[in-house]
Amino acid sequence: MNDSVFQQFLVDCIGEWVSERTYHYLDYQKIERSRTNFIVKPLTSPQKTQVLTKNAYELRGSLEEFRGFNLGFYTINDRGEEVINNLNLMCIPTTDSGNLLEGDYLRDFAYEEARPIIAHFCFNALTKELLMTTNYTRVVSVDSITMSNPHLRIRRILNYQRPPEGQPLENILLVGFGVEQKKLPED
To answer: Which of 61, 81, 87, 185 gives 109 a disulfide partner, CB atoms 3.0 to 4.6 angstroms apart?
Structure first.
């Protein structure tokens, strides 16, 4: 793959976004709606180094080759519960097979568990979908971002009960859907 499609996807992610999401908690039979305001900025070299160091990740190549984000967000759900967070993340490609680019997805602070974490990503250049799979202690989170255009993203989040090693993902605990729109300067 010419990774220019992936690089453009990452560039298009930068900015301010508003997300309207619905979460279906299947194990509790509960539905939650939330609104999140995101601010996505490119990572500086010191922030990239921090992500790599916290994950004890040995980078092959120049630091400048790899993009990353500082992601700040504020979420409020329909019960008035609020979450404010800020984290740094990087996507480091390791395999290129035609229209699919795969690699490591590093964060200095994970959503589900408050710790640095290395996950897996797969980017499809034809559909402009970034699929991120994170193995946490109790769940496996499969998070999808599809860039419909530079101002509209569709999100899908599936959290599975983590199966025994080598077994397939089967038991879905949470399903989330979201529409994310980039705020324009005049908004």
So the answer is: 87
Domain of 144 in residue numbering reads as 4-182
Q: What pLDDT is attached to residue 120? A: 98
Answer whether residue 34 is part of any domain.
yes
Within a domain: 79? yes
Task: Taking residues 168-172, report their average pLDDT.
Answer: 97
Region of 62 on the Ramachandran plot (φ > 0 left; ψ -120 to 50 alpha; else beta):
beta
Domain membership of residue 187 (yes or no) is: no
* Whether the predicted model's global pTM rises above the 0.90 cut: yes
Q: Could you tell me the maximum CA-CA distance found in the chain, to the nearest angstrom?
A: 50
